[in-house]
Amino acid sequence: MSSTSRSQSRVSFASLTPNNLGTVRKLNSVLFPIKYSEKFYQDVLLPEVEDFCKLVYFNDVPVGTICCRFETAGETTKLYLMTMGVLAPYRSRGLGSKSLEHVITAALTHTKPKIDSIYLHVQVSNAAAKGFYERHGFKEVAVHENYYKKLVPHDAWILERSLADHTEENK
Amino acid sequence: MPPSGIPAKRALPPKESSLFKEVLNLYESKQLKKGLKTADLILKKYPEHGETLCMKGLILTHMGRREEGLELVKKGVRLDLTSHICWHVFGLIQKGEKNYEEALKSYTQALRFDKENLNILRDAAHLQTQLRHFDGLVETRHTLLRLRPNLRQNWIGLAVAYHLNGNLTETKKVVEHYERTLKNVPDYDVEHSEVLLYHVRVLEELGELAEALNLLDVNAKSRAIIDRTAIMEYRARILSKMKNVEDAEHTWQALIQQNPDNYDYFKGYFSNQGLDLFQVTEETRDKALQILREFSTQLPRAAAPRRLALGVATGDEFKQLAEAYLISALEKGIPSLFTDIKALYKEPSKQESIQGIVESHRERLSSPSPPSPSSESEPPTTYLWTLYFLAQHYSFIGQHINSLALLETALKHTPTLPELFMFRARVLKRLGDPFGAARCMDEARLLDLQDRFLNTKVGKYRLRAGMEEEAQEVLGLFTKKDASSPGADLEDMQSLLFLTEDASCHHRNGNLGMALKRYHSVQKVFNEVEDDQYDFHGYSLRRFTINVYLEMIPWADRLRSHVAYVQSAIAASQIYVRLHDDPSIATKSSADNLTDAEKKAKKKAKKAAQKVQEEAKKGHPQTSATEDKGLEPGPAKDDDPDGSKLLKSTDPLDRAWKFLSPLAILELDDVEAWIAIYDVAVRRKKFLQAVRALNRVHSLDPENSELHVRLVHLRHIVLSLPQPPPEPIGPVLAEALDKLLSPEVSLETYNSQYLQQHSTSARSILASAKVLHLLGATPAEEIDNTIFNIFNPEVQVDIEAALDVVAFLRSIRSARVGEFRAACDKKFELSTVFKAPAELISLRRKAIATIEDVEKANGEKTEVVT
C-alpha cells in the first residue's frame, strides 16, 4: 500500500481541546453544508468521548476531523458518528479509512460502557459514502425520511455496524 | 589592631567593647533584632560612637527601614572618619543601591585604615571590575594574593586582572607560577581543566603558538583537559594559525563530522585552505564548490554544506543545486525555507532562478493530477508549502497583490494552516493596513489558542494597529494571573518586545507620557542586565569559569548596542526634544489627545497601580517572617502610572542625553542614532559633540535627507548666536561645519540645489520642506506645494515616508493635511493608515476576529444542527 510512497506521509490523530476547537470549526465550515451548534462543540470536548473525537493530521497539518457521541437507551449503548470529513486535496489517501478504523478499534476495547454498535446517517444521494462505510462493515438498517430539513434530498440512510459480536468483524 | 592606636572617641570600655563584638557577630549571623538591641545598649551610654551607629544603620537597612538606616550610617561616618568599619558599612549600603562609583570610594577609604582586610579587598576588586578600573584591580588582586597565596582563586584573580588590563605577559607568568604550586590535582577536575584551557588561550593570544599547541596536546593526552570539543576547537584554530595546513584540515574535518551544522567549522576549514567561504572569488569558486560537494556526499543528512554551496555557486550550477535544495525542503514541509533562502536574493540572478524553480514546481503540482491519485503521488502538503514559499517570495520583492492571490489559493486548498493567515497578516501590514493585519493574525490564533507564539504575534499586531488595551487583553492570556496587569507582568519579565512595541504604540497614539514610561522601563531592563554581571566577578573566579567570563566582559561593554535599547533611546530622546522645544505638549498630550479607549486604559492603569500599592502594604506584615530584606532597595512604588510626571520633567534634555550617551560611546554605525545625538547635543549647546555627530552621519551616508536638514539647522543656529563660541570651540566648529556645508552658498540656494539633485526621492522632498520651514522665510502655501511634489509620478514614495510627511504637515499645522492624507489613501490602495480618524475607530472594531470569522469560510449554511 503506502509503503512504496516516495515521500514519507505521516497520518496522526490529536484529541480535541478548547484550544484547537477553532481548527475543528474551520474544518466543519468548509467540509459540511451544515452549521453546528455550540452544544455540538461543547459535547465533543467531554472527557468520555476523547477516543472518538479527533483531529486528523497529514504531515503535521490538520486536514480532517471525526466526531462521535454516545447514545444510551436502557441497556444498550451506541456510538453515533456525527461528522467525519477530510479536506478535498487530501482525499483518496486512506485518511478516512484510518480515521474510521481508529474509532472502531477504540470502540471495540471500550468497556465503560460497553459499546454495542456504531451508526450514522448518509444522505441518500451519496452512494459513494455509503459504499465507503459498507467496506468498513456497516450495513443499511433503515431509511430516515425527512432527516434533513433543507438539504435535498431530505432522506438519509441509517448505516450501522454491530460491535457486540466480534466474529462479524471483517478487516 | 593595637589598642594604643585607637582614637579616644572610638575606644569603648571592656563591657561595651565586648557588646560591640557581639553586634558584629549577630549581624554576620543575620540575627538582626538582637543585633539592634545590643547596639542600642552601647548607644545608651555612648550615643556618639560612630562604629556602633553605622552598624545600627546597617541593621536597620537590612530590616527594611532604609532611610532611617542611611541617616545613621552617614552620621556614624561623620563621627569617626578614620574607622574602616564605618567606611565599609557606608560602602556596603552604596553598593546595595548600585552606586558603584561611590561605593568604591568608600571602600578605598576603608582600605586606607585597614590595608589588609580581606573582605574589603575582595569587594573592592569586584567594584573595580564592574567599573572597569583595571589598574586598581591589578593592585587589589596583588594584595589579595600576597595575603593569601594558598587560595587558588587569588592566583586566577590576579591573572584575569592582568588580562583585563591588557598585560598578557604578566598573565602568563602568574598562570605558570600558579600551576607550579599545584599538588595532587584530582582526575577529571573541571576547574583545573578550565585553567589549563585558559593557559592555552593566553599563549595563543600572545602568539606563542607552538607552546600553546604543546600545552594543549600534553594536557589533552593526560586527560587533564576534559572538554573534548574545546580541545578540538582550540587545536584546529592554533594549527591554522601555525600554517600547519594538513593537520589543521584533519581537525576541522573532525569537527565538521561531529557537528555538521556549525558554520564556524566550515569557515575555519576553508580559511585554513586560504579560502574565504563568504567572499568567494572567480578563482576560488570551483575549489570551494568542490569541497562543499564532497562534504555533501560525506554528510547526506547535513543541510549546512548544501546551503553554503548555494552561496558559492553561480549560473547553471546554482540552478541545479538550488533546485535540489528547494524541492527537498518543500517536500519535507519546512516552514522556514524562505527565511533560510532569502539572503541569496542580494544577487538578482539567484532571485530570478529561485523564482523560476519554485514557479515551475508549482505548475507541475497544480496541473490536473494523474488519473488515480493515491498515496504514491506527491503529497498535497508539498503543493501547499510551495504556494506558501511563493507568497513570501512575491511579497519580499514588493509584489504584494500577487502574494495575496497565492495565499488565497493556498487557503482554499488548506484553510487550517496558521502560517498562511500569519503571512497574510504580514502582507497586509506591508500594504499599510495594520487593522486587517491584526485581524488576520487573530484568525491564525483562533486555530490554535495554546500557541504562545501566535498569541504574542496578535499582541504585537494589535499594538501596531494602536489597539493598546486589546493587545494587553490578548497578551494577558499567557501572563501571570495574579499580576496587577498583563503589562506589569511583562515588564517584570523584562519583555523587550512588549515594552518597545507598547511604547511606540503609545507614541503613535500621541500618549507621550506612557511612551516615555515604557522607554524608561527598557532603560531599566538594560541597567539591570548590566548590574547582573556584578555577581560574576566573584562567582566566575571562584568556580574557575574564566573563559566564558572573559567573553562576557566585552559583551557587557557593548550591551547597549542591542537594537531594543538603540531604538528606545532614539525614540525617547525624540520625545524629550519635542518637550524641550514645546513644553506645552506636556499638558496637551495627557488630556486632549486621548481617545475614549485611552481614557479607559488610563483609568485601568491607575487602578492597577493602586492595587499594587495596596498589596505592597498588605504584604508588609506577612514578610516580617524573614526580617532580612537585604541591602538592595525593593521594587519602587509606581507614583507615575500614566507617565504624566515624566512629561513635566524639568530637565528633558539631560534625560534625553542619559539615553543617548551610551550610544555615543559605543560609536555605532547608525545614522538615526547620530541624528538623535545631534538633536540633543545642539540643544544642550554642545556644539563640538553636535558637529561630530553630523560628521559621523556624513561618513555613513552623505546624501542622507535628515543630515541635510541638520546641516542647515546647525549653520542657522551658529549664525544666530550672539557671538561665536570661545576658543578653541569656535574655530574648530566653524572649520568642521564649513567642510560639511560650504559657507559660500546661501542656505536657501543650498536647499533648492539639494531638492533639484534629489527630486525623485520623497524623503528628500520632505527634508527640503523641513528646511524651508526652518528658515522661516517661506509662506506656508509654498511649503505645502513643495510637499505635494511627492505625488509627481516619477517620485518614489513608500508608506513610511508618507506617514512622516503627514506628521510633519501636522506639526506645522498645514491646512492641507487632510488633502495629503486623502491623496495617500488613494495612492496606497489597500492601506488603511491614511483613513480619517473617524473611520479608524470602526476599523479598530473590525480588527478582532471572532468565531463567526472562523466559520464563515463557505458562505451561508443551509442546514443548522441543534
UniProtKB/TrEMBL annotation, chain A:
Pfam families: Acetyltransf_1. It comes from the Eukaryota. Keywords: Acyltransferase, Transferase. Residues 11-164 form the N-acetyltransferase domain. The keyword Acyltransferase applies. InterPro entries: Acyl_CoA_acyltransferase, GNAT_dom, N-term/lysine_N-AcTrnsfr. This is N-acetyltransferase domain-containing protein.
From TrEMBL, chain B:
TPR repeats lie at residues 84-117. Residues 600-609 have a biased composition (Basic residues). Coiled coil: none annotated. Residues 626-645 have a biased composition (Basic and acidic residues). Residues 356-378, 587-647 are annotated as: Disordered. Keywords: Repeat, TPR repeat. It comes from the Eukaryota. This is Uncharacterized protein.
